[in-house]
Amino acid sequence: MTKLFADKLRKVEPYVPGEQSKNKNIIKLNANENPYPPSPKAMEAIKNITDLNKYPNSSASDLVEALEKYYGVEKGEVFVGNGSDDVIALCYLAFFNSQKPILFPDITYSFYPVWCGLFNVPYKTKAVTKDFLIDPKDYYEENGGVILPNPNAPTGISEGKDFIKDILDHNKDSIVIIDEAYVDFGGYSSVELIKEYDNLVVTQTFSKSRSLAGLRIGTAIANKDLISLLNAVKNCYNSYTLDSVAIAAGKAAVEDDTYFKDCLKKVINTRERFSKDLKALGFTVYPSHSNFVFATRDDIKAKDLFEALKKDDIFIRYFNLPRIDNHLRITIGTDEEMDILTEHIKKYIKNM
Ligand code: PMP
User: Fold this and answer.
1) Nearest Cα residue to atom 1 of ligand 1
2) Are residues 179 and 89 in the same domain?
3) Nearest CA to ligand 1 atom 12
4) Total-model pTM
């Protein structure tokens, strides 16, 4: 029966996250999680929490102060939220409030159009080149804002300072969000540019490089006026986006730089080794500055390989989307996990 109130309901097309499994024995390389545990200091901080009967500090000031120190920015230039998805959603609400379309690449993080749908933000996509490169000139036209991941997802391709400055210089009357979810794995971070550009917002996450996807912490770094607006928008919606556990463990993780750098080194080394192995098997592998690689081989149907691996309890990511439906995105796990995956791919090729 058609409900009489149906036309009053919001119509949404949700984002589909990488599949999670109850089976702990799978090799899970489909959600760009870190294979290493969080800093032991973060785990210790969680154990020491005693005041869960009280609300958390609504500005998460312990964590914000640790991040201001880490980024070398001034007080008031850092915002935190419940994962960078929450931070970016709040950025849409705060900064993309124009009738003009916002711009982002056609091959990019598939959440960007979803937020446009939810918040009624008009958008236009700009086609990346056949090698999946973003052309800065595509972002010179009038717009309601720009959002780009650097490195891009799901390609892992990263751009440098000149590229970012070019886009910022041509968008002085719009906000440009640079989503640096994967930057710690070797990309260029534009945090240093927030002093020079009052239209720049950089977002980062603890989910990848800091092994804390389960805790949900994201950050935005920008000038004080923009951060103040983000806080105001957050306080119109939910005062306590970060809980006490996330604040305490996040602070401890930021302060444990040695552990952070050790984990990054391991993931980067494994990525370079695995990329070589995949190339030796005839795959085109895009140069990645993230904790995943994006690969394709013309004579292998990506979807079939994805499904065959899944049957063997190895989960990678396949996107049934135009232009990338014969590519696979593979998260970098431990050396051992990547070796098992390589052996399975070899076996698959042998039996083709
Ligand atoms: N940006 C990009 C490009 C991503 O791939 C992800 C992870 N899905 C996010 C943002 C959000 O990550 P989180 O909410 O875990 O911080």
Assistant:
1) 181
2) yes
3) 84
4) 0.97
